[in-house]
Amino acid sequence: MVTWSVLGTLHAVPALDRPDLLADPVALALKALDPADAALVGVAEIDPTLADTAEFCAAHGSPLDGSANCVVVAGRRGEAVRYAACLVLATTRADVNGLVRRRLDARKASFAPMDDAVTITGMEYGGVTPIGLPEDWPVLVDAAVAAAPAVVIGSGVRHSKLALPGSLAARLPGVEVIGGLGR
């Protein structure tokens, strides 16, 4: 039995049952997963003004340490720009200038500008998720996320949230699990 209790007071349904609550790239990526894995992903509709993690957790009784944030990082070396996504527990911050910069072989790494992140991912700012990102991006997942029984993540849009086992987040396409990514 799948449980999405990490969503607190919200009622979730299988994500593929509600494509209207998913960004298009997220829906396509979920359809491409093994059906048994896709069935582990739940979605719940939320007030988009409560999409930011702290507000979401406070409003719905979801544990802060059961939420994971996905950030888009741009690494630069000369004129070349490489992107990656980092998924870390909401109680931590991604080690952008250490682990991520080295993984991207960049001289400088920083959070990608909002407009770039939105345009390249096809997702809404504040709803970016590791599901459905460009295939050539590394998706760096902190080991603490991978070990979590369940996590709440974005759905690609601000009016819903996804819940899934951390072990599934670790098996998503393009994922590399990295210990110490979240500090």
Main beta sheet: 5 strands, mixed
Number of domains: 1
N→C terminal distance: 33 Å
Q: Supply the CATH superfamily name.
A: YbaK/aminoacyl-tRNA synthetase-associated domain
Strand order of the largest sheet: 5-3-4-6-9
- Low-pLDDT windows of residues: none
Q: Helix/strand/pairing class, anyone?
A: alpha+beta
Shape: globular
Task: Please identify, by name, the CATH architecture.
Answer: Alpha-Beta Complex
**Average residue-wise pLDDT:** 96
Total DSSP E strands: 9
Radius of gyration: 15 Å
**Total helical segments:** 7
Q: How is this structure best described in words?
A:
GO terms for molecular function: aminoacyl-tRNA deacylase activity. It contains 7 helices and 9 strands, in the order βααβαββαβαβαββαβ. With about 180 residues, it is of the alpha+beta class. The protein has a single domain, classed as YbaK/aminoacyl-tRNA synthetase-associated domain (YbaK protein), CATH 3.90.960.10. It has a 5-stranded mixed beta sheet with strand order 5-3-4-6-9. Strands 1-2-8-7 form a 4-stranded antiparallel beta sheet. The radius of gyration is 15 Å and the shape is globular. The N and C termini lie far apart (about 35 Å).
